[in-house]
TrEMBL record, chain B:
Biological role: Cytochrome c oxidase is the component of the respiratory chain that catalyzes the reduction of oxygen to water. Subunits 1-3 form the functional core of the enzyme complex. CO I is the catalytic subunit of the enzyme. Electrons originating in cytochrome c are transferred via the copper A center of subunit 2 and heme A of subunit 1 to the bimetallic center formed by heme A3 and copper B.
Disordered: annotated segments: 1-24
Lineage of the species this protein comes from: Bacteria, Pseudomonadati, Pseudomonadota, Gammaproteobacteria, Alteromonadales
Top class in the EC scheme: translocase
UniProt name for this protein: Cytochrome c oxidase subunit 1
Gene that specifies this protein: ctaD
Keywords of this entry: Cell membrane, Copper, Electron transport, Heme, Iron, Membrane, Metal-binding, Respiratory chain, Translocase, Transmembrane, Transmembrane helix, Transport
NCBIfam families per the UniProt record, alphabetical: CtaD_CoxA
Domain Cytochrome oxidase subunit I profile, chain residue ranges per copy: 33-538
Automatic annotation (TrEMBL), chain C:
TM regions (residue ranges): 12-33
Function: Exerts its effect at some terminal stage of cytochrome c oxidase synthesis, probably by being involved in the insertion of the copper B into subunit I.
Descriptive protein name: Cytochrome c oxidase assembly protein CtaG
Keywords linked to the UniProt accession: Copper, Membrane, Signal-anchor, Transmembrane, Transmembrane helix
Keyword Transmembrane: yes
Length: 388, 538, 196
């Protein structure tokens, strides 16, 4: 029994202590490996404060643990029956009991002060230099720059083949998007955060920003990034099937570089609109529509309706053989543009161009044995969208 | 766990000719268990049910860990993965931990306070027998088209309303039944403790297990109806067009979280207060010394219970609250660590200058104190709002609540089973197997949950079926620890089967050298009917 | 029935009263939550009925920027935009901003606008004397309307706030609850050409 106790003391005592000291050491030495083990200090003043607060709380907790477990293990070693110890008879002591109520309370006060200070620093409501409207929807983010017309969706860029283990996984597996959010360094950027459907949570660990996106309500958060770089995060609130597949990527650029980027975006957006207008006057061929449609379908629709068009029975309806897809062409275009309230079907009118919608509707009406032969042109989509 | 039907001690069979409440002819076979109103039978049923649910919920955890063993999607699709995390949580909370505590209360509360049975034996029978139905409904929903609930055990609206499958109706129905069962169990415990104590068993003489369960029972009747209200609102929002949580109709999805956590935080204490009671019974026995600070233990338990009603929003710091509210909930939450600390200090003080031995129940109790404290300390870190923004919804939280609930609540239940099993069966359990069970569980559970702190801090969100590459190494270890912990519980199963077959050395009525209390004064195994004439407590 | 059983029964009844009471309390949390929001400004819910403007002193020393965001929910095809994206106001001053809507669908749709303000506590100081969000707004196919929102900012607005955002989300509530007849919509730009 004695041997057993010793083993117990050693295992229980050293396991957590070893790990704690390991982290403490790692925290001191810094380095890249650390970020796999501990909170990161991040790249903003706030995230630095949060990190310091975390380390302070951590060391206080380790100290408490060492003292409490220390006393306990000493007792377990000394006060064993096998050592012939006779039990003492004390079973209360008001002074001691008051002491271990008051002392922890004082420690808490000591912890509460810096915590409150950081919290107040986070809730800075002064006017920002720039505002971005961040909208979550199943399973992508939408960014809109409030001071310009630039807006776009940001989708997971990792290939499906990597997720299915057919291709080997690349460095930023699941943490890469097609169009990252770009913000300037050294400026106060405010994020207005909301959602189209369920609750999401926009999280960038390096900024210490995590805020829920609640449908119908706006939340706000802000950051001021000092170092240019690429910062990666993820959706933090369970939001359905592909919750694990909607990363957040933010690129911080020097203001001059940022302005150049912004002008380029505005120009690109304008050109895209002109292209849309031009497309209205012409007809695309079946081959063109089908190949474009397949690309769009796999990017925007396959998450729910599945690449086979069979959906997930009981969750997401099948498009293969669906009455709407086979018959009602206008309703089909309408649901793709406007979505359907009270279901997971989103409004793609904002996300996809007229050409893309035309292509994807054509694709859905002709793929997987849905051989309607229907051709949908950008101008048909435009007619539904504008009510003409 | 089962007990003999033919060992009614002579002194208990003669003293109550006028007693017409009990049927001394015990029916055999299935009928005995279906119709039983005996607190010991019902306790046994609850405990076996809890253990079966623990194995089923554990099997789901194995599916989760198998999928997370390496990055990429291997064995399940994300939709099924979400069903696994959801149902695993529901089963462990409502099917394993809570029924196990109710089972222990059934067995022990009457024996500890010198009562012949629970106050409401027939209700006791119903409260157990509606449980298997509730879980059959929940489990069968997994086989529906579209699968079972997949919105997390916290079922946040609108994911659980507008965006959920049809199985939500079954989920709501089963939660209603589980709630009704817990409420009935709680009422029974309260009435028993208020009305059935033996003469001389004053409030401040009651064993701590009885005290903690009394307070737990009040928490249960206060918050389980709120949960019933929340699921009812989910049901009407989804199927009957109400807009409690729908912004379009003037509702608010965040309100769901307020209502849920108003239930949810006291629920956390429902799952840990009886554990405090168990540890407070075991530590003095094996330290051969009276519990230190009995009165402060009672007051600490009561203050934890009261504080648990004013901290709920610490689960929701990221939903966007005014700073003043965040401060309030942060400070209130930090305050809870004071009474919790008092408990840990009292246990250590009980050990101090005792004369300790480390039999299996004590091993689990010591492991509980250390590992629960680790969970408590990470809880304190989580209370700090600005840092919680980083911890929230990551594996750090998963590590925290598994330390509190697995190495806390479940270890305490195992400690309790090893402690009282000889009293129930009359035979000492297989100590070698028990030690194997303890050491395998202790090591594997730490390999399983400790690295979760690291992946959480490094930024891995919870409830994801696939993860970025930097989390791969730790997840492999976590999964291996998980499989080992899962297999370790099969040792427990083997031990329990042996114990129920009455194998082992007979034990004395006191069983453990330092054990004190009414339950240790009756013979081992405990007779089918005990204390039909109340004992007098000095 | 023995004494003991009677005592037990009494106690059970008392406890059941608590249970029923707590079930009711769960539902009472719904209106309580709204009261709580009104007091603390959680979630930035603004009042859903008109405030009365009484001439109060305008605080010229402070200028507040107010930003407007418009969104339409899934399944809502309307065009919806604020004619004024951003406005600077002094606390106490009455202002009107207009919102443009058009229904491009080929059927009548009834809309409900849901407001949200950030930072949340501003909701306590934002007083709307008129708002299209107080009522449901019907539009026939192809109709358009300009909807006003008249408001003033309470001079009590905390000193540290100089900037806030008001968001309106339009939801399609056709066929739900008490829908207005089309002629009741006071904000129509022009009468529809074809009567119904």
């Amino acid at each position: 029994m004695k041997r057993l106790t010793n083993v117990l003391s050693i295992v229980l005592g050293t396991l957590p202590t070893l790990v704690f000291s390991f982290i403490a050491q790692a925290a001191e030495s810094g380095g890249k490996e650390l970020s796999d083990l501990n909170l990161r200090p991040g790249v903003t003043e706030i995230s630095g404060q949060v990190y310091d607060l975390h380390m302070l709380m951590f060391f206080i907790c380790v100290a408490i643990a060492v003292v409490v477990f220390g006393v306990m293990f000493v007792s377990m070693y000394l006060h064993r029956k096998s050592r012939g110890v006779k039990p003492a008879h004390f079973h209360e002591n008001v002074k001691v009991e008051i002491a271990w109520t008051v002392v922890p309370f004082l420690i808490l006060v000591f912890m509460a002060v810096p915590a409150a200070r950081t919290l107040i620093a986070m809730e800075d409501t002064s006017e920002p230099d720039m505002t971005v409207l961040v909208t979550g929807s199943q399973w992508k983010w939408h960014y809109k720059y409030m001071d310009s017309d630039v807006e776009y969706y940001s989708l997971l860029a990792t290939q499906q083949e990597q997720i299915n283990n057919r291709f080997s996984k690349t460095e930023n597996y699941l943490l890469e998007v097609d169009r990252p959010l770009v913000i300037p360094t050294g400026q106060k950027v405010r994020f207005l955060i909301t959602s189209e459907d369920v609750i999401h949570s926009w999280w960038v660990p390096d900024f210490a920003v995590k805020k829920d996106a609640n449908p119908g309500f706006i939340n706000e958060a802000w950051t001021k990034v000092d170092e240019p770089g690429v910062y990666r995060g993820q959706c933090a609130e369970l939001c359905g099937k592909d919750h694990g597949f909607m990363p957040v990527v933010v690129i911080a650029k020097e203001p001059a570089e940022f302005n150049a980027w912004m002008s380029a975006q505005e120009e690109a957006q304008r050109q895209a609109q002109e292209e849309e207008q031009r497309l209205l006057a012409m007809n695309m061929s079946m081959e063109e529509l089908m190949s474009e449609g397949k690309r769009v379908y796999n990017a925007a629709c396959a998450a729910c309706h599945m690449p086979s068009g069979e959906g997930l029975p009981g969750v997401f309806p099948a498009l293969k053989g669906s009455a709407m897809v086979l018959e009602d062409r206008l309703a089909h275009i309408d649901i793709v543009i406007n979505g359907k309230a009270g279901t997971a079907m989103q409004a793609f009118g904002k996300m996809l161009s007229l050409k893309e919608i035309a292509a994807v509707v054509t694709y859905e009406r002709n793929a997987w044995g849905n051989n309607t032969g229907d051709l949908v042109q950008p101008k048909d989509v435009n007619a539904v969208a504008t009510g003409e | 766990m089962a007990h003999s039907t033919d060992t009614i001690a002579p002194e208990h069979t003669t003293a109550h000719e006028h007693d017409d409440h009990h049927d001394h002819h015990i029916p055999s076979g299935i009928k005995r268990w279906l119709y039983t109103t005996n607190h010991k039978d019902i306790g046994t049923l609850y405990l076996w049910f809890a253990f079966i649910m623990f194995l089923i919920g554990g099997a789901m955890a194995m599916v989760i860990r198998l999928e997370l063993f390496q990055p990429g999607l291997q064995i399940v699709d994300p939709n099924f993965f979400n069903q696994m995390t959801t149902v695993h949580g529901l089963i462990m909370v409502f099917g394993a931990v809570m029924p196990a505590f109710t089972g222990l209360a059934n067995w022990l509360v009457p024996m500890m306070i010198g009562a012949p049975d629970m106050a409401l034996p027939r209700m006791n029978n119903w409260s157990f027998w509606i449980l298997p139905g509730a879980f059959l409904i929940l489990l069968s929903s997994l086989f529906m088209e579209g699968g079972g609930p997949s919105f997390g055990w916290t079922f946040y609206a609108p994911l659980s309303t507008t965006y959920s499958g049809d199985s939500t109706a079954l989920f709501v129905f089963s939660v209603h039944i589980m709630g009704a069962s817990s409420i009935m169990g709680a009422i029974n415990v309260i009435v028993t403790i208020f009305n059935m104590r033996a003469p001389g068993m004053t409030w401040m003489k009651m064993p701590l297990f009885v005290w903690t369960w009394l307070i737990t029972a009040f928490l249960l009747i206060a918050v389980m109806p709120v949960l019933a209200g929340a699921v009812t609102m989910v049901l009407t929002d989804k199927f009957f067009g109400t807009s409690f949580f729908n912004a379009a109709g003037g509702g608010d999805p965040v309100m769901f979280q307020h209502i849920f956590w108003f239930f949810g935080h006291p629920e956390v204490y429902i799952m840990i207060l009886p554990a405090f009671g168990i540890i407070s019974q075991i530590v003095p026995t094996f330290a051969r010394k009276k519990l230190f600070g009995y009165a402060s233990m009672v007051y600490a338990t009561a203050s934890i219970a009261l504080l648990s009603f004013v901290v709920w929003a610490h689960h929701m710091f990221t939903t966007g609250m005014p700073v003043a509210a965040e401060m309030f909930f942060m400070f209130a939450t930090m305050l809870i660590s004071v009474p919790t600390g008092v408990k840990v200090f009292n246990w250590v003080a009980t050990m101090w200058r005792g004369s300790m031995t480390f039999e299996v129940p004590m091993l689990f109790a010591v492991a509980f104190i250390v590992l629960f404290t680790i969970g408590g300390l990470s809880g304190l870190m989580l209370a700090i709002t600005p840092v919680d923004f980083q911890y929230h919804d990551t594996y750090f939280v998963v590590a925290h609540f598994h330390y509190v609930l697995v190495t806390g609540a479940i270890f305490s239940i195992m400690a309790a089973v090893y402690y009282w099993l000889p009293k129930w069966t009359g035979k000492m359990f297989d100590v070698t197997l028990a030690k194997w069970h303890f050491w395998c569980s202790l090591i594997s559970v730490n390999v399983l949950f400790f690295p979760m702190h690291f992946v959480g801090l490094a930024g891995m969100p919870r409830r994801i079926p696939d993860y970025a590459l930097q989390f791969a190494d730790f997840n492999k270890w976590i999964s291996l620890g998980g499989f080992a912990f899962g297999l370790s519980q099969l040792i427990f199963l083997a031990l329990l089967i042996k114990a129920c077959r009455k194998q082992g050395e007979p034990v004395s009525s006191q069983v453990w050298e330092g054990a004190e209390g009414l339950e240790w004064e009756i013979p081992s195994p405990a007779p089918y009917h005990t204390f039909e004439t109340p004992p007098v407590v000095k | 029935m023995s004494e003991q059983a009677k005592d037990n029964q009494k106690m059970v009844i008392k406890l059941l009263v608590i249970v029923v009471g707590m079930f009711g309390f769960g539902f009472a949390l719904v209106p309580l939550y709204d009261v709580f929001c009104d007091i603390t400004g959680i979630n930035g819910k603004t009042a859903n009925s008109a405030a009365v403007y009484t001439a109060i002193e305008v605080d010229e020393s402070r200028t507040i920027s107010v930003e407007f965001i418009t969104r339409t929910n899934t399944g809502m095809p309307w065009e919806f935009r604020a004619e004024t994206k951003r406005i600077k106001v002094h606390p106490g001053e009455l202002h009107t901003v207009n919102f443009y809507v058009r229904n491009p669908a080929n059927k009548q749709i009834i809309a409900q606008a849901i407001p949200s303000v950030s930072p949340g506590q501003v909701a306590l100081y934002l007083n709307k004397t008129e708002c299209f969000c107080f009522n449901q707004q019907p539009l026939l196919a192809g109709e358009e309307a300009t909807m006003p929102m008249q408001f003033y900012v309470d001079p009590q607005l905390p000193e540290d706030i100089s900037f806030f955002t008001v968001q309106y989300t339009l939801f399609d509530v056709t066929g739900k609850g008490d829908s207005l007849a089309v002629k009741d919509n006071p904000y129509l730009r022009e009468q529809p050409k074809s009567g119904t």
